[in-house]
């Protein structure tokens, strides 16, 4: 458990996917946290509109990968390694199950290192972005 001293600004990390229906509901939360004195670092895939909206809400936008490649798509991680001859009805399940884990493996070291450097004290994440769970576990927050 992290204790925050008097006068210290809490530092929060948020993790999400690049889907409007997932990020839009979080912007009022970002505004509320910032309004209450928190510093919010929002980890988002490269999407100019969504990143701009996060900044407008008061968050500091962070990249999932250190070099922030603009062609990086979380939802594409690992899906190119689909089991050969997988029945059509199971292919969508494969895609949905594999990319969150594959992208967490790909990005995990950077995310942990970056969050440790930022002094993250709390982590919020969309269930489709298990990266936050990894960071919270690694930082023990």
Secondary-structure blueprint:
Layout: E1 11-15, H1 20-23, H2 27-35, E2 39-43, H3 48-57, E3 60-62, H4 88-118, E4 122-125, H5 131-139
> How large, in whole angstroms, is the Cα Rg?
16 Å
Query: What is the SS-derived class?
Result: alpha/beta
The proportion of residues forming helix, as a percent range, comes to 40-55%
Mean pLDDT across every amino acid position: 93
Task: Report the uncertain regions.
Answer: none
Oligomerization status of the protein chains? single chain
Summed up, the helix count is: 5
Strand-residue proportion: 5-15%
**Helix and strand pattern:** EHHEHEHEH
Shape summary: globular
What gap, in angstroms, lies between the N and C termini?
6 Å
Number of strands: 4
**Main beta sheet:** 4 strands, parallel
Major sheet strand order: 3-2-1-4
Primary descriptors:
141 residues; alpha/beta; 4-stranded parallel beta sheet; 5 helices; 4 strands; globular
What this model shows, in words?
The protein is an alpha/beta fold. The protein has five helices and four strands, in the order E-H-H-E-H-E-H-E-H. The chain has a four-stranded parallel β-sheet with strand order 3-2-1-4, with helices on both faces.
Summary of the model, kept short:
With 141 residues, the protein is of the alpha/beta class. The chain is built from five helices and four strands, in the order βααβαβαβα.
